[in-house]
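Appendix B, Record 12. Input sequence as logged:
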Amino acid sequence: MNTLQTKRLTLMPQCAMHAEAIFAVLADPAIYAHENEPPASVEWLRARFARLESRQSPDGRQRWLNWVLSETANDSLIGFVQATVLADGAAYVAYVLGSPHWGRGLASEATAAVLDELAATHHVREFLAVLKRVNLRSLRLLERHGFAPATPAALAAHPVESDELLMVLTHAERTIWPTSAAVSVSPSGPAHSIAVGVTNIVAGRSTAQVADARGEFAAVCAEVERVGRIWGGHRPVA
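Logged structural output:
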């Protein structure tokens, strides 16, 4: 496993030695508003982390990839991101972040780094996330990264409980959103033109860029529509 670096975070492969610090994070009651409960003891958590250091299931069909998160500025552990990579090239992803660090975009930043790593290094082509339907905070995070509710076919392959949502993002969907776009209007002569420059994201580009580009691309489309209405120009064909 690789150590991952983002603008504000270091994501280190999770090991048994991280159990005590993560146990303190998991003592936060806000984490359990929708599901789960804190670990019974530091010793229990240390033993679990030790088992997960194998990085794979006993039958070898799943890869268990877990990273602990630290803020680069102070090295304190604040949570973790988990990924279970299946034999078919799909991966379940999940994260836990202590509530004092909510609302700063850190969970989104960490998730983006892990999605990029899974695609680039572990050749994951489909990302899955399961959450309680009432967990709107996590739902919004997943939507920002392009996840959408699972199709009936995906639910048949990966069933969830009635109070849960399965959210899905494919590798192809991560690569179609523009990283930058510019609209220029040239009302010269009787025919007015609209030129739209779009640079497409390619495989391996940051998932955070995908999320940021959605709003920019929507603004570009709105401007194209506005100009088209004013001058009767042709709509560009993507």
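Residues 154 and 168 are 8 Å apart (CA to CA).
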